[in-house]
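ARCHIVE CARD
Drawer: 12
Card no.: 0347
Subject: one protein chain, sequence and derived structure
Cross-reference: see card 0346
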Amino acid sequence: MLLLIGGGALVILLAVTRLGGTLIAPFHSADEHVADTLYDYSRRGRGPHIVAIGGGTGMPALLRGLREYTRNITAIVTVADDGGSSGRLRRELGLLPPGDFRNNIAALSRDEALMTQVLQYRFGSAVAEAGAGGSELQGHAFGNLLLAALTGIMGSFD
């Protein structure tokens, strides 16, 4: 009987350990100890509540710096972009230009490098060569199209 209880306890301990590793994995980087990752996450959660108001290229740089100290950031993004993909979406769909929103979302993301690559990806000549309607997509940033789709689904940028 004691052997059965000990075996059951061992299985439960192993399951809890594996579950903990699975839950921590998305937040843990290979060059950092798990305890450091959890402490940093907790510390930034208790950080100050900050509201940043601005736009242009300076706002994402500011948000990157603030992200090191707190997770409690509210960004109010002013938009005035009318060129490129943002300008086309603004003219054709009547949307607020999404380019500044896109840049700030990337700046606030946990894996900024990957998120920037995904959101900043521009459809180019490879799309046109594939015959997938390249003339319509060419020059658009994926993040702008994603934000345009979300605006269509939700009804607004709010």
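Annotation on reverse: The first strand starts at residue 50 and ends at 54. The first helix runs from residue 2 to 24.
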